[in-house]
Design goal:
The chain is of the alpha+beta class. It has a domain of about 110 residues: hypothetical protein PF0899 domain (hypothetical protein PF0899 fold, 2-Layer Sandwich), CATH 3.30.2320.10. It has three helices and nine strands. The strands form two sheets. It has a seven-stranded mixed sheet. It has a two-stranded antiparallel sheet with strand order 7-8.
């Protein structure tokens, strides 16, 4: 069952990150109304602008975080503030949890290298349309001839950033030089 749980988790992570909204949830990359910034390079000033583009009332929310992929995360390690201090921490002072400006950094492998975002993640709505179910078949495809059982996990869910909470998020989708 561990394989199925991982597959379901990966499917949700992908939908929340890059879902198009057509036959799948609308992900943070494509969500309507979210503040978009024309940032092409990761710099201290650009990251401050990104954070400050989110309405101030969301900054104290425990779910406020930065999010992007692992390559963006690696690039963040090299950025320092105007006093030469790193802005990305992952050491004993943060209990070895990724932090950018003191906020969590959530790594999602499905975001493209050209993306970084931040916001109050509890304002991304995820809802199940129906209870998850499992279907099995010993006849479908080549299951009969290979003496196996095919298993399918069925989840009916949706997700999006609601209009009233669009100012809870900001994103930069034009990053270059990260590979």
């Amino acid at each position: 069952m561990g394989v199925m749980a991982q597959a379901a988790s990966d499917s949700r992570d992908k939908a929340i990150a890059i879902g198009s909204g057509v036959g799948e949830p609308l992900g943070l990359l494509s969500a309507d109304g979210v503040t978009d910034l024309p940032i092409t390079t990761l710099t201290y000033a650009n990251l401050v602008s990104l954070k400050e583009s989110v309405d101030q009332r969301f900054h104290g929310d425990p779910s406020f975080a930065f999010f992007g992929n692992q390559r963006v995360r690696a690039k963040l390690h090299s950025i320092v503030d105007s006093n030469g201090r790193p802005i990305f921490l992952n050491d004993a002072t943060t209990a070895f949890k990724d932090q950018l400006f003191g906020y969590p950094y959530r790594t999602n492998r499905f975001f493209p290298n050209s993306f970084i975002g931040c916001g109050s993640l509890r304002h991304y709505l995820w809802f199940d349309r129906r209870q998850m179910s499992i279907a099995t078949s010993r006849e479908a495809s080549n299951a009969f001839t290979t003496d196996s059982t095919l298993v399918r996990l069925i989840e009916r869910a949706d997700g999006k950033v609601p209009e009233l909470a669009a100012d809870a998020f900001a994103r930069a989708t034009g990053l270059t030089g990260i590979s």
